[in-house]
From TrEMBL:
This is Ion channel protein. Pfam families: Voltage_CLC. It is a multi-pass membrane protein. The keyword Ubl conjugation does not apply. It comes from Streptomyces massasporeus. The keyword Metal-binding does not apply. Keywords: Membrane, Transmembrane, Transmembrane helix. InterPro entries: Cl-channel_core, ClC, ClC-type_chloride_channel. The chain crosses the membrane at residues 20-42, 63-86, 158-182, 194-216, 236-260, 272-293, 313-332, 339-361, 381-412. Its main location: membrane.
Amino acid sequence: MVQDSEDQAPSVTPSTPARTLLPSIVPAVAVGVVSALILVGVEAAAEQLQDVLWETVPDALGIGRYSVAWMFAVLVATGIAVGLVVWKVPGHAGPDPATVGLDAPVLPPLVIPGLLLANALMLAGGPSLGPENPIITTNVALAVWLGGRFIPRAPGRIWPALAEAATIGALFGTPVAAALVISEVLSRQETRGLLWDNLFAPLTAAAAGSLTVSLLDHPSFDLDLPSFGNAGWADLLAAVAVASVGALLGMGAVRAFPYVHAAFRRLRHPMLMLPAGGVVLGALAALGGHLTLFKGLDEIATLAHDPDGWSAGEFAVMTVVKLAAMVVAASCGFRGGRIFPAVFVGTALGLCAQALVPGVHPSVGVSAGVLGVLLAITRQGWISLFVAAVLVAEPGIVALLCVASLPAWLLVTGRPQMQLRKDGTSVR
């Protein structure tokens, strides 16, 4: 039986005309530039305050910058300061950070000042969290608010996508990271049209955000580790082993997260939870040293500059302490993200593996460790691969990481994530 010609024709996804995509360029560029400026502004303010807290004041008092007493004092004071913001500032600095991931909720503009202030105080004071979640949330709120007023005919769903892409591009200094994250999100949604049509506006925003940050701040994630040349079987085995250990270590933190969070929730008030978190973080800093403070990017550069400067035991302590500090900081109410401290954990783990087994090349150990930990903490496959690869900036590492990601992913998929629902149970 002969079918109709329409039935015989292949199914082709329709593309979007250029005239439909062109009007999105200007709003995307505007969102990208503004999002990057907010990120740079918050980080610059936090760095200035950090210099005062950790250099100017202790030097004036004649106290060691990273003495145990001073680390305790600053971390507890940071808990008190952020607690006051969460308690008294309108909007209470947004929702519980343990319930927020990279897909930020759309919050009213009233929340923005308190959220940015809490994030800047946290970044300066030393808790082990990064700027990503609060900055993404802020930029999404601003984009939705301003976009709805200046371009009311635009679809409301476009503004969160533009803001998230712009902020991710700014955070990592390249739009590639944003494209990978967005493509992963689109794969879970029912979208119409070609992938690149759907990516056009967000990728434009991400490019504008990353270029703005590059022009103002010149970020670099390359740790300048020794080149490992052509990958061999030993490198492949090391990458698989270290990534799997990193995934298991990260899953240990994920499993502990709801219990630690519940323990702090019993204190009920931010002026109790956050200072108590500061006390615990002070104890962890005393154990792990000052390199386990802050978001971790400057600190991993210090570690990578001298991989032989610490013993395997010291690297192991820093790995565990930083992971515990991240769980505590995210559980007690500090406003921040978990990607950057997870990168420190993976870096310390990889250098620990190299110190234990000299045959493990430091570039392989670091990239594989970061990959495994990020897979467990973020459950974002593309962003984990991207960050792990960009730390080494060597083409040969990509193939090793792709193979190493397979067993690591099997260890984390289908299991609880490091994000909680409002009732305190883990998201799966």
